[in-house]
Specification:
This protein has 183 residues and is of the alpha/beta class. The chain is built from 8 helices and 5 strands. It binds cobalamin.
Length: 183
Amino acid sequence: MIKRITLVEPKNDHLHIFSKFELPRLGTILLATIMRDKGYAAESLFMSGKDILARRTETDLVGISTITATATSAYAIADEFRSRGIPVVFGGPHVSFLPEEALEHGDFCITGEGEIGFPLLVEALNGNGSFSDVPVDTAATGFYPYIETLFHNGTTLGCAAGLYCPVFNPHELAAQPTRFEER
Ligand code: B12
C-alpha cells in the first residue's frame, strides 16, 4: 500500500550557472502538493544524487523528475531505490522523449504532463482503478486533443503538418481570433 511518496529532482552535480541557487523546476513541487491534497504523505526533494541516497529516505514510492543534464544521476538514484525494493516512476522532459531508456531503470514512466496521470497511477498501484485509466501521455490530459480540434478545423498555426508552433507562423493573425473564441 502506497502512503508515502518521495518526489525527487536531482540537482546537477557539475558546476554551472545555476549551481549557486536553489532553483528546482516546478514539477515535483506541484505533484507533491497534488498528492498531499489527496491525503498522501508526499515530499519533494531537490538535492544532489549523493545527498538523496545518503538520506536513507523511508518511502513507499519514488517519483523522479529529470532533464537530460541530470539523467545519469536520476538513473543511479532509481537503481538504488529499486535495489531496496521501492518502486520508481519517472517523469519530466528527458524521459518524456526517451521513455524506453527510463524504463531500463524504473518501473513506470509518465510522459508529458503528470497532474492527471501520476495520481491515477498511484491509485491503480493501490488497487483503486485500473492501469489502463492512466494516460500515458499529455495527449489524454486535454491540451493536445484541444490542439487537434483546432487542426481539424483548419487552424494549423503554421509550420505545416499540423504542428502547433507559434514561431514562424504565417497564419498567426487568422489563428489568434480562433484561439480566443475557442477558449
Ligand atoms: C523554468 C525553467 C528553468 C528554471 C527552473 C527554476 C524555476 N523554478 O523557475 C531555471 C532557469 C533554473 C532552469 C534551468 C535550466 N534549464 Co530549464 N526550463 C524551465 C522551463 C521553462 C519550465 C520548467 C517548469 O518548471 N515547468 C513547469 C512544471 C510544472 O513542469 P515540469 O517541471 O516539466 O513538470 C511537469 C512534467 O514534466 C511532469 N513531471 C515532471 N517531473 C515529474 C516526475 C514524475 C514522477 C512524473 C510522473 C511527472 C513529472 O509533470 C509535471 C506537471 O505536468 C522548461 C521548459 C518547459 N516549458 O518545460 C525548461 C527546461 C526544463 N530547461 C532545460 C534546460 C536545458 C535547463 C538548463 C540545463 C539550462 C542550462 N544550460 O543551464 C538548466 C538546468 C538547471 C538545473 N537544475 O540543473 C530544458 C531541458 C531539456 C532536456 N533535454 O531535458 C527545458 C525543457 C527547456 C528546453 N526546451 O530546452 N530552467
